[in-house]
Amino acid sequence: MGDRGQLAGGHMDDPATSRGVRAEGAARVALVGAGPGAPDLITVRGRELLARANTVLYDRLISHELLGLCRPDATLINVGKHAGVHSVPQQEINRLLMEEALCVGAGGLVVRLKGGDPYVFGRGGEEASALAAADIPFEVVPGVSSAVAAPAWAGIPVTDRRFASSCTVVTGHRRADGTLDIDYDALVRTRGTLVFLMGVATMPQICAGLLAAGAAADLPAAVVERGTSASQRRIDGTLGGIAERARAVGVESPAVLVVGAVCALAPELDWYDRLPLRGTRVLVTRPADRAAGLVRALAGEGAAVEEFPCIETRPLPSAAKMLGRLRNFTWLVLTSTFGVRCLMDVIAAGPLDLRCLGHLRIAAIGSATAAALAAHRITADYVPEVYDGAHLGAGLVERTDAACDRVLIFRARDSLTDLPEALERAGVPFEDVAAYETVLAPVSPAPDLARRLAAGEFDAVTFTSASTARGFARAFPDVAPRAFTAVCLGETTRRAAAALGYRCVVSHAATIESLVERTVEAIGRERGAQGGD
Questions:
Q1: How many CB atoms lie within 10 A of CB 264?
Q2: Fold held by 314-440
Q3: Which CATH number is 281-310+442-523's, of 3.40.50.300, 2.20.25.530, 3.40.50.10090, 3.50.30.50?
Q4: Helix 367-374 vs helix 337-349: angle between axes, to the nearest 10 degrees?
Q5: Which residues on adjacent β-strands are paired with residue 436?
Q6: What does the pLDDT look like over 47-102, one tens digit per residue?
Q7: 238 - beta bridge partners?
Q8: What is the structure's pLDDT at 24?
Q9: Which residues are known catalytic residues?
């Protein structure tokens, strides 16, 4: 994925000179609303276009998670800052949009990814006008505006029949001459909810203007900072004092100022602040290509989640070699979702298709592995009730006949021996194929992450395998083992983490759902339980 990082220079002539000649030779441009900040609040259409785009021009506040949705070979251009200091002039963004559309060419796609909604104080109208004037095809994909999303996540409905039948969204951004173009008298007369965007610096002036226009000083008001993010903060007050309260606690952009009676509902309706992991920080060490589900689940419980993949998994040549010998076996055993992926990749790359598995009975170590098989329309014949090698081996012994069955174990190199030992004791013929290997991730941690771990800024670190625990210990040798709670997936992982000195809790079952549930039990403030098995 190419990231130019800042505005690239261009050499296109005045767009007006090319009016009417671009439609056939230019890519389509999509002005896509990224939503208020939380990456999963982008629309389905927006996500689809990001995955297809040849080039993406994005704003300063766009999250890394959203950029991660782009195709690997997409060109990414940061138009939010120039040299990390000055905002890129709008006219230059317009020019660059048209230049990229021509560069990508007909049949391609350029996405302009904008925070919130393109047409709600996002200057999307100016960009659309420039594209229309140049006869460049475009579409607009609406986004969830922070004007409604940030209050909603803070317990404030911008309209409520009991308090307000209208909502007015106002920009708090100063004009070029330094003044605010706000009709305070008209706003006060609406007697509805007022939402001010981009108004942190001008909040005292906005509040003073509303008071001078006759608004009551005790009218409820609130500021929602970093709305819909794990670090969201709500500051409650009244119109007469909210600006000073925001200043006193150091509110920074992005933040939304809400004024109106609906703000009084926040203590009752603030669902987000009641999530059990709100105010906690969790580090996920799972491989990057398998971390998304765990990250989403923890974030859904309110945690601020960061990732540091401690290991990565790589296929081995032996995986492809075993394909031609499948007819020699009656059972195929898979011990991870990566094993399923590796198997399917081997089949897809070879001369055979899924029919080569038709004669086999298939065992999966757990529900996640079984689900990965089901995604390929393959139903596992056996899944043990307890998801570990010992129980898988014992169950296979009960279901096989040593006289006529032969088992192929398709799993990681240097895996634990519980599974093959159970088969060997029962005299069941088997072959243990090292189809892939787990190695330490090549990326070194940033010094800041090690410092924050040592300082106790993380409440929990999740380990989904023994190798993630060992990889973490290798990456952070100077972090005190008891600086956080180690939440472990399964007993095998717990034993490995405990041997390294970590203060451990273990999931009740070897599933991601159970791991998240155990995290809530161990560190969630709502349930109040403290870890320490």
A1: 15
A2: Rossmann fold (3.40.50)
A3: 3.40.50.10090
A4: 30
A5: 315, 412
A6: 999 999 999 999 988 988 899 899 999 999 999 854 344 567 899 999 999 999 99
A7: 220
A8: 67
A9: 59, 81
Instruction: Report the C-alpha gap between 470 and 466 in whole angstroms.
Output: 6
CB-based contacts of 360, cutoff 8 Å, min separation 6:
326, 329, 330, 331, 332
Q: What's residue 446's pLDDT?
A: 78
For the chain, percent of residues with pLDDT exceeding 70? 92
* Range of weakest confidence among 81-90, 175-184, 266-275, 304-313: 81-90
| Cβ 280 vs Cβ 523: under 8 Å | yes
**CA-CA distance, 192 to 166, in Å (whole number)?**
5
Which tokens go with 67? Answer: 């950029």
CA distance 102 to 156: 44
Identify the burial level of 455 via C-beta atoms within 10 angstroms of its C-beta, where 0-12 means exposed, 13-18 middle and 19 or more buried. Answer: exposed
How would you write 232-263 as a 3-class SS string?
CEEEEEECCCHHHHHHHCCCCCCEEEEECHHH
Q: Which of 138, 142, 118 is nearest to 46 (CA)?
A: 142
Quote the CA–CA distance of 332 and 342 in Å, as a whole number. Answer: 14
C-alpha span between 364 and 338 (Å, rounded):
12
d(CA 71, CA 172): 36
In CATH terms, 2-144 corresponds, of 3.40.605.10, 3.40.50.300, 3.40.1010.10, 1.10.357.140, to 3.40.1010.10
CA 503 to the chain's CA centroid? 27
Distances in whole angstroms, Cα of residue 123 to Cα of each of 13, 201, 421, 433: 22, 20, 66, 58
pTM for the model stands at 0.78
Q: Which two tokens stand for residue 305?
A: 């989640």
C-alpha closest to that of 471 among 450, 490, 497, 491: 497
Q: What DSSP line would sit under 406-417, residue for residue?
A: -EEEEEETT--S
Structure tokens at 315: 């296929």
Per the structure block, which two tokens stand in for 227?
Answer: 């709305």
CA–CA separation, 17 vs 14, rounded Å? 6
Mapping DSSP to helix (H, G, I), strand (E, B) and coil, where does residue 516 land?
A: helix
Tokens 């090292």, located at residue: 434
